Here is the input.
Amino acid sequence: MGRNRFYGWVALAGAMAVYFSMCGNYVYSFGVFLPVFSEEFNWSRTALSGTLTASEVAHGLIGPLVGISISRFGARKNIIVGNTLAALGLLGMAFVEEVWHVYLFYGVLAGIGISFGSFLSTTAMVNDWFIRRRSLAMSLVLAAGGVGGLIFPPFISWLITSLGWQVAWTFLAGIHLILAVAIGGVLVRNKPEEMGQFPDGTVSPIAPGTITESPGISRVYQTPVDWTVRAALRTRALWLILACDLTLWFPFSTLTIHEVAYLQDKGFTSLTAASALGLMVGISIIGRLLFGVLGTRFEGKYLIAVCLALMFTGMIILMNARTLPLVYACSVLCGIGFGGMLVNVPVILGAYFGRTHYARILGWTAPVLTVFGAGSPLIAGLIFDVTGSYMLAFQVGVVLLGVGVVLALLIRPPKPSVSIPDSSHS
Here is the structure.
């Protein structure tokens, strides 16, 4: 492709293939398998939910290493190597016989692979290729994950019923290898500068802090400097953003991992329950695209507050749902809210802290998120095993989402008191 033709949209297509595959094959698949494994092997839901804890721990502990790896080797190599490991982990799930096999293949091997090859790599690539259109580009990548979440859960449910769970896992491994490794590896490029181009296809570099929105669009804050890791970690803004993100993950992981089992316990069929999960993730496409557009017009903190409020409302509805329309209402509200959050958090981090150290900043925050968030699926499963109900888990999720709304409104852009040097070692 000639240098005059902006390659960013092609690279974006590769990132979309990676994220589509990761969400469909990994994130939203396990909740469909959980009741199957629990019944066939007589494993408790607490034990199976701990697999997600193992995955989160693996992800969090290596977060700084992932950020360093992306900064040093680029997103493309991390996508290829990481997703190859993830595909091997998914394939290993077709041969599990003991519960620790699930922890090894899904929680550790696939979890580590996804850590290197998915969210951080794809969003770092988007953050490098786009500034003016960052919010829109980010929403397109993350919307692709929503498509994967819409398609895969009901299809996996059908596949398990028709051909067995072993065939289902084998299918997931193969499709992940094709989409995330082969297609993603071919299309993705690290930065526009490596191809003699500049972000957004401009003919010259865009200085940090330059307001680049189109005429008629409200000015949205962009950092005047590229923050180092050390400086960013000292800001109140970073920790408030991460706290808002944290309040999302307990209720969301409770839904994605336990909603299928919860609805089956309420008397809904397995296919209906899986479809409700698929609808929530699929409808999040609307949230991802909608808030991607809104992100070019409105400050991210207000959008985060709206997203968390939507999920708050959705979970209250689910707690009182006795009919399918109410279940679907929860799916719609939580889907839009989650989709918007998924876009808003990386966008606001890029807007507040810049391009150069985005991957490292996000990578260094991962252990902190892990300390508070890794136990969410395990706690929800434990609550069920002790009380025989998920109601307390949902109540905790509602409280956290309410706190998140308040925290979002307290976020302010960080203001450096002195010039921040551009050091790759900070």
Summary: The radius of gyration is 21 Å.
